[in-house]
TrEMBL record, chains A, B, C, D:
<dbReference type="Pfam" id="PF00202">
    <property type="entry name" value="Aminotran_3"/>
</dbReference>
<dbReference type="GO" id="GO:0045303">
    <property type="term" value="F:diaminobutyrate-2-oxoglutarate transaminase activity"/>
</dbReference>
<comment type="similarity">
    <text>Belongs to the class-III pyridoxal-phosphate-dependent aminotransferase family.</text>
</comment>
<keyword id="KW-0663">Pyridoxal phosphate</keyword>
<dbReference type="InterPro" id="IPR049704">
    <property type="entry name" value="Aminotrans_3_PPA_site"/>
</dbReference>
<dbReference type="InterPro" id="IPR015421">
    <property type="entry name" value="PyrdxlP-dep_Trfase_major"/>
</dbReference>
<dbReference type="InterPro" id="IPR012773">
    <property type="entry name" value="Ectoine_EctB"/>
</dbReference>
<dbReference type="InterPro" id="IPR004637">
    <property type="entry name" value="Dat"/>
</dbReference>
<keyword id="KW-0032">Aminotransferase</keyword>
<comment type="pathway">
    <text>Amine and polyamine biosynthesis; ectoine biosynthesis; L-ectoine from L-aspartate 4-semialdehyde: step 1/3.</text>
</comment>
<dbReference type="InterPro" id="IPR015424">
    <property type="entry name" value="PyrdxlP-dep_Trfase"/>
</dbReference>
<dbReference type="InterPro" id="IPR005814">
    <property type="entry name" value="Aminotrans_3"/>
</dbReference>
<dbReference type="InterPro" id="IPR015422">
    <property type="entry name" value="PyrdxlP-dep_Trfase_small"/>
</dbReference>
<protein>
    <recommendedName>
        <fullName>Diaminobutyrate--2-oxoglutarate transaminase</fullName>
        <ecNumber>2.6.1.76</ecNumber>
    </recommendedName>
</protein>
<keyword id="KW-0808">Transferase</keyword>
Length: 437, 437, 437, 437
């Protein structure tokens, strides 16, 4: 650990929650240098939907590297890229009746968001963009300007406001207030102070903002308002996409068709940096090289992304499995909330993107800390870190899923039931708790 | 090729200059699907200083993947990251007397630039940043705001100007005008309209801007002006770093010590996405997670980056080799310019980052097009794409280096000597030109 | 008229609604060059609360000019300024228990708003400002950024959004939704995307935005939310102040005490350019000359402003008179709305700042046009110019007030009752209608 | 004085330099409440070119007020406005071969600048504007963004940089460097980081920036660069116009024709708030009411402005007189500089807009302070207040002009010659110095 203290910047975040030096990983487990194993309910913040080092993809990756397949290709045509595009078209776009052009941006989510915002502004000739309360889209400047979190916003050191209007997300104003009506009103009112926007950018389930799931009806209303006002709809599917909510795209259930979609995180399948922007063909007004980036041709990611699609998305078996596990998480967490929530805890999310809103960030932090003591890596989310966030690999075994929730349940019981009088819990590692090696 | 036409966005750039489907690559060569080989004087726009799929790094990479080393680690401590840091400290920082903290940003250059600008602004509490004419720092919004190129700037669709003042780079105002004096004057003058900046961001050799190399004296003056006005000096070493100019950091020759350094491109050695920000320890005022990014723990890159440093930077042999080859390039291109430049062509750059300024973008384009017909991939740079840019792998063999320059020389001769009356050159592939397979 | 066509810019606005060349004015009447008289229910857009060329102030003004009193004094101390300050303190501030410092800005409302925003931002060190839907604060850039109207916003030609968040005004989201709760929520939520603001800027009755009057309760809630979050409350009392709503300051009825108040329009009493910013003493952190303006010492305005206060604000007689007339306007317009509004028209405003919302801008335009044909100058307001706006001089005689409303009533009857079948109304001037000379 | 201490804001500036309570003024003199007289070499910061309370204009003003001429006319046509326009056309525009449309903005210089910038941006569809080092254009946000002074800029509390690039004014880079060539270069270079601007905004003589006079050749080059790049040229003639430099417009000598001109300060002649924007007819693309302002119809100013033009600009007698006096100031100050400047002092300006650059702000401050002790009001200018600025009324008598310069000369002698060893000078008032009453 010494080298990290010595020369790694203070900006570290997860390393503080999980103060181990990790070495290997497989499926739903990470292993530290001492060989201890940890059940992973964080999954690279949603990047490892198919688990760590998925063996099927690994084989393809090794094969490609061994044959000296191009690693770094800028935006040049390569066999690996072509095959990814074919696969993506055949198994993702066509079965869903979607016609999109694919832009390879720099291989990070924030880069895809930057590109999407540029495109929307250039195509429409408008500057303003609608973002939502508790939205999170990245930490580069334009992405940050549509991100709600003040911790991140405050780090910019320069003006963020230009060309962004924030409106309330689904449910933000309480039950019974359909916030898309507010959006419709300000867009209909030439004196509202909200300039006609190029686009609306939205997450169907807000990952960092607290696992807030928009309802199907709200998404449909949002799409209708966008259409009515000739405003582009950008779905940022970076965290909720790639099956996390139960379908490949998180918006499938609502039946809407966004004009632009950003994808990253689990797209490569193997945790390799990769990001794309999908856009309706008429919107593809990019001029050559207008938006670029050195690593937009990360060919290793093309190889594993293709493998992921071929392995999991050729039929609906995987979707059904996600749904089944999602239902299990829901029912287990419902019981936990009923038993320990004292009427305060709230369940959030959908599919395998779930959260328990503990209202208090301090409480949620105690719970996740205790989980880690017991071998479960799980994080919090939300403005005050008040939501315990489930992001386990979608391919997790039923046994491991149960085990993880069991640990969580015990942690919540320990923290909530006896918070005042119980002695500091001993680590379950000390007690030879079963998941510890 | 069909799939690219069908669903890849029009934003493609290099794919237009080099319209082939590439598959494999090794050292200084790419191979297309038909097996034709191309000598690579582009090197991933400076990302492949150690050549494609360097066999030493490849071995380490395969080994790491096979043992299920963590691929994606967010910002958690991992064995691979720790070893990279140890190696970087031992062979890069310590021998050069540099004390820097290392921040792992999202693994693209533009992300590192965004982080560097945030840090400088937060530490100083100032908003303005000084950028230079013809500077290029990336395409996300804050990086774009310090980038000179109007093609890129114009794509933002929103205001770029806030908090950036552009001043003339070395030589911009002609010989005999030391532009750091202008900078000193506007910073000394409380009524200049140039607000006291947080930082100056500079490339020692402007890669995209036309291979404009700042002189040692100018860099020293720049550092002195920064110090005088208590302004942070950021060297963006993304393209010029990692040995390109002859030393690991491009600023070593000048003896200056930047406050902040951004690195990416060839840092991973293998073309894998990777980027860091180096900062003087006193500047590391980051709060946990203030700047984040899903792929800031691209562990495969840590493995190859360590291998690259261990292989090439343990002693000064590599530096000497770069210098020798750089001199060769210089003398060969000098001859070419003398013979064909008609007094107009200008040599630019230093080390193995060189360019021939052909003044006309049209002319430079004809030259690089003809090179490609003859099996050499080489690109242009500069505001009008008027500079033929040498970015061959640093590890290129003498033979291949000679071969590449020979092709270039022939192309220039063909284009310049007989531009008006010669028939359209047949492709050398058709003529079984020797470098074609 | 020829000279206006020849060389006056197309930017003209009121000159299009009232296409005459006016020459003289007295009390509630304007007279054109031909001697025709027009009853003025526009009153310089709220600048002539005391009527045109009020004879009492006129005498003081003539006297001052004759004795060569200083006309233009920059910000130097002058007898006229001192006497204005004394009078303002004695009859306005002290009786209301208000302690404010007075800043003389450039003598236009927009300039006072610019100064108020600067002050709030400097004192708090924050950039964001909360503005409201349908707010109007002026046409210079910072004032424009807090103005809702897209017609004005669109003319800026540069980014407006930086550092401003627009939230819904009282009633904007319909009955039963207290929009200050929304404001409280976004300010309480660190992930709302609404950065903690320096200030909230609000009109108690939105003049240009459609005569929308905030309720007493809403203003009290707004003040409480500001206090809770340590945000400055700026009341822009430029149009609603100086007695227009029944009290000198429009916020008196609500019992709140703004941190900063902007005043202009009727402040000089005589229609002379004048504007001030009032601020709580602790906020007066201005450095000498930080905000300046050549005409901030328009001493003629000091003279008439003093006369206006002494004449109308020494006791509560004027307030009572405004209330009485306001009630008359209300009851008369209520009858009109009941008779002709077909359930659509809505009464708005309070005091002598009233409006009939005709829902349709086209309809409202026909009404005011017909009014003008009959000798009444009255204008529209609101996002779609859908509100017929009453801004008659506060000192109007009962007879003239009745006459004006009679003309309006007739216009509404003509326009609404027989809109489809009636012939184009002849001008009442042609028919020797009684108010024409 | 008590009331000023009690409730006037700390923002006061001139009131600190001249701590008296003034009451009357006539021609070149102000009188305080005690009857002391002060010779005015400040002239309302250039607003009182025709002296205080010019008796000819005063007569017209009184007459107009007595007959109840309209005081406040919004933008409606009035007899007074029409007559001003006729006069302006006949005696100002036509004799100079200028075709301009006239826009009446809010009656302050900064408002005219805001309007001019809007117009330029809207007509061209571009955002960037070129401003110059040491330029001053006002304190509302857009005007501030093109102003160089950090004292004013720093007060904005929000981003200023958007859409403005500052380039060096004439002489800023030293002799022999023609800064318009730098401007031409950055506008010709698509990678300069200086986006093609809507307009250049320039003062021919920088008033607040230190009485820096652009040469005729530089202005011609600037106009040529603007034309070459299809960029609008805005001359801000607010301080240098209305005869201050010897001709009505300050740019007449150079023979250039700006696309847009802003005027204010001495335009009304009597110190009354007044401002206009002049624009080439093709640029008058304003939509009705796009830029407005309550006091844009300050009819009293129209009356005095007409009188000023008729009195002084019907023939060239006034121009010749200004030139003669300007030459006198120049030769007197040349002698003073030669005798006391020790080779450091520099003469600046042209016509009757002159300055002595004392290099040190402290020194200049001592000089002006001593002048005031001796009955002369004169101010400093420049980034460090290092320039003693001559802005006496253009109509000053030869005797008073000599008297003022005599006082200044004595002050400089006192301050410079014996700075170290002389006792603190007694006030000349105490010594019955001849100009004191």
């Amino acid at each position: 650990m010494k080298i990290f203290d010595e020369i790694e910047s203070e900006v570290q975040s997860y390393a503080r929650s999980f103060p181990r030096v990790f070495h290997r990983a497989q499926g739903a487990y990470l292993f530290d240098q001492e060989g201890n194993q940890y059940l992973d309910f964080l999954a690279g913040a949603g990047t490892l939907n198919y688990g760590h080092n998925n063996p099927v993809f690994k084989e393809k990756l090794i094969e490609y590297i061994l044959e000296d397949g191009i690693t770094h290709g800028l935006d040049m045509h390569t066999k690996a890229k072509g095959e990814f595009l074919e696969t993506f078209k055949q198994y993702i776009l066509e079965p869903r009746g979607l016609e999109y052009m694919v832009q390879f941006t720099g291989p990070t989510g924030t880069n895809a968001v930057e590109a999407a915002l540029k495109l929307a502004r250039n195509v429409t000739g408008r500057e303003n963009v609608i973002s939502f309360t508790n939205g999170f889209h990245g930490c580069s400047l334009a992405a940050l300007s549509v991100t709600g979190n003040s911790h991140h916003r405050g780090a910019a050191g320069t003006s963020l406001g230009a060309g962004v209007s924030t409106v309330p997300f689904d449910g933000y104003l309480g039950d019974g207030i359909e916030t898309t009506e507010y959006l419709d009103k300000v867009l209909s009112d030439s004196s509202s102070g909200v300039d006609t926007p190029a686009a609306v950018i939205v997450e169907t389930v807000q990952g960092e903002g607290g696992i807030n799931a928009a309802s199907v009806g709200w998404l449909q209303n949002l799409a209708a308002v966008c259409k009515k006002h000739d405003v582009l709809l950008i779905v940022d599917d970076i965290q909720a996409g790639c099956g996390r909510t139960g379908t490949f795209f998180s918006f499938e259930e609502s039946g809407i068709t966004p004009d632009i979609v950003t994808m990253s995180k689990s797209l490569s399948g193997y945790g390799l940096p990769f990001a794309v922007v999908l856009m309706r063909p008429e919107l593809d007004e990019w001029k050559p090289g207008e938006h670029n980036g050195t690593f937009r041709g990360n060919n290793l990611a093309f190889v594993t992304a293709k493998a992921a699609i071929e392995t999991y998305w050729k039929d609906d078996a995987f979707e059904k499995d996600i749904k089944r596990k999602g239902d299990y998480i829901h029912s287990r967490t419902q019981e936990i909330v009923n038993e320990f929530g004292e009427g305060n805890f709230i369940l959030q999310g959908r599919g395998m993107m779930r959260g328990i809103n503990c209202v208090s960030g301090e409480l949620a932090g105690k719970i996740t800390k205790k989980c880690f003591q017991n071998g479960l890596m799980i994080e919090t989310s939300g403005a005050d870190d008040q939501v315990v966030k489930f992001l386990c690999p979608l391919i997790i075994s039923d046994e491991d899923l149960k085990k993880g929730i069991d640990i969580l349940e015990r942690a919540i019981r320990d923290v909530c039931a006896k918070e005042d009088d119980m002695p500091e819990a001993k680590s379950y590692f000390d007690e030879n708790y079963d998941i510890a090696v």
